[in-house]
Amino acid sequence: MISELGRPLAAFQHPNDFGKNEDPTMVGIGSGRSLHVGAASKCEHWRSIDLVDLKRMGLLKPIVDGRIRAISWKNDHGGLDRLGIIPGSAGIRFVKHDAQDKLVGVFVAYTHTPTMFGGFRKWIACPGCRRPTRVLYGINSLWCRRCRGLKYASQSEASHWRAQRKALAIRRRIGASSAVLDGPFPSKPPKMRWATYRRLRAVDAALLDRRLLGATGYLGRLHSRVKQR
Questions:
Q1: Is there a contact between 19 and 141 (Cβ–Cβ < 8 Å)?
Q2: Strand spans (E) along 48-206
Q3: Are residues 117 and 223 in the same domain?
Q4: What is the pLDDT of residues 52-90, one digit of tens each?
Q5: What total number of domains does the chain contain?
Q6: Cα–chain-centroid distance for residue 129?
Q7: In angstroms, rounded to a whole number, what is the distance separating the alpha carbons of residues 135 and 83?
Q8: What is the average pLDDT across 135-151?
Q9: In angstroms, how far is CA 98 from the centroid of its own chain?
Q10: pTM to 2 decimals?
C-alpha cells in the first residue's frame, strides 16, 4: 500500500540511524517479524522491501512537491506502520517514526555488478554485510536474507509438495484453467514452440512421478509412526 508519511521533505534531511533508536523490547509485527510459529526462519513471514517493487510502484522517481510517499503495512493493533521512501542518485533513505514519535532513518546505498554484454545491474547494498541484494527484510532494521538467517518456505517443503507446485506452475504456463494435476497435459498454446512444449511436457511427467513417489514414501513413514504408538 502506498501512502504519504505526512511530513515535508525538509523534516527528513537528518534522521537518526535505525539501529541507534531501535526499541530493544519491540518484537512481533512491528519489528518486521510475524508471530507465526517458526516464522523467524522464513522469508515469507517477514515484511520485505523489494527494489523491483519500489521501481514498479514509481517510488524511485524524484519527490514532487516535497511530500514523501511511504509504504504502509497493517499492524497487530489495527493501525498502519509506514516506511517513507526518499530516493536519491546514490541510494535510498528509508524513514519512519519510532515508538516515541521521533524521526529515525537509514540510508541504503546502491551498488552495481557487471552484466555479460558490458552493462551493469543495480542492486541495494545490505546495511549489515554490504552484499548486493534485491530484497531487505524488517522495519526497525533493514537486513538481507543472509544477515537475518532466513530461508525460503520452499526450502522446507517435502519433495512431493515441491514437485506438485512446480508441475502446477508448468501447467499454468501452458494455459491450464484449473489448479489440478488430474487429467492429460494441456494442449500446446498457439504461439509456443513445439520444442518448448515437448520439454515442458517431459518435465511435467517427471515431476508427477516424483510427486507420486514422494507421497508414497511420506504415507509409508506416517503409517510406521502410527503403528509404533
A1: yes
A2: 48-50, 67-74, 80-87, 91-97, 103-114, 120-125, 132-133, 135-137
A3: no
A4: 999 998 999 988 787 888 888 877 777 777 888 999 999
A5: 2
A6: 19
A7: 15
A8: 85
A9: 24
A10: 0.57
- Side chain identity at residue 193, one-letter code: R
Amino acid at residue number 172: R
Domain with 42, as residue range(s), is: 2-151
Span 103-127, pLDDT tens digits: 788 899 999 999 988 899 999 999 9
Task: Assess whether 97 and 185 both reside in one domain.
Answer: no
Classify residue 198 as exposed, middle or buried by CB count within 10 Å of its CB (0-12, 13-18, 19+). Answer: exposed
All residues at 6 or more sequence positions from 82 whose CB lies less than 8 Å from its CB, including other chains? 3, 5, 70, 71, 72, 96, 97
User: Which whole number is the average pLDDT over 38-50?
Assistant: 72
Q: Domain ends where: 92, 120, 151?
A: 151
> Are the CB atoms for 146 and 131 separated by under 8 Å?
yes
Q: Are residues 39 and 83 in the same domain?
A: yes
Average pLDDT value for residue range 144-171: 79
Supply 115's cell numbers: 552484466
SS3 (DSSP) at 210 = helix
Say how far residue 202 (Cα) sits from the centre of its chain.
30
- Choose the final residue of a domain: 107, 132, 151: 151
Return the C-alpha torsion angle 162, 165, 167, 169, nearest 10. -140
